[in-house]
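Predict the holo structure. Ligand: heme C.
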Amino acid sequence: MRIKVVLGALVTVAAIATGVVIFPACSSGMPMPFGEEEDVAFADAVWKAMDGYEMWKMQSDVYPGGTPHGMFVKLYYNMVTVDGTPYHVIVKDNFGGEGIDLEMVSADPATYLMAVTIMVQREAGYDADNNDWFWAKYMADGTVDKNPQGMMLAGRVAKGMDMGCIACHANAQGGDYLFTND
Ligand code: HEC
């Protein structure tokens, strides 16, 4: 089965998008909505649990993406189990590189993989304001990526800020934070 991919939303939203997550790091010692040790630990555990996701049955073809995701992207969906709890996980491969085209990426995705972004549906109450999604961005090798301020991109990224995963995905239709099904 293929995930149905609708590109209309991409064009609109990508047009407004200017770049990656930018916001000041907090120095007050208060727990942040993301980038804390437990967020990174969960992201690491999910990465382990999704090992071999390239083989998942539910996946799209490579298709053209836009800012801030790759020039080309590819989607995967599955349930993964972390600490005995099953979670819905949506994985997005973000591809980029000099002079790449659809054929090049489709033929050799691993070479052009720049980042992997995921959404995990967490338990009720994890982030009730934002549909309980957990967000993470990994580098191609599976290390959790940082924003320019050095905050790890895992958790409720970037709750309460006007840029970032949550702020942008809040524009998806139906309030589910998913563009794919718009
Ligand atoms: C400025 C807007 C914007 C930001 C910021 C953004 N995204 Fe997205 N994202 C999109 C759009 C548009 C799509 C759907 C189009 C596509 O497939 O490329 C998408 C698709 C996705 C998908 C596939 C599911 C879906 O909604 O279709 C995942 C997973 C995802 N993004 C994760 C993330 C994560 C994690 C972050 C933060 C690190 C993030 N996104 C930041 C705009 C954004």
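The longest helix spans residues 37-49. Residues 8-21+35-175 form one domain.
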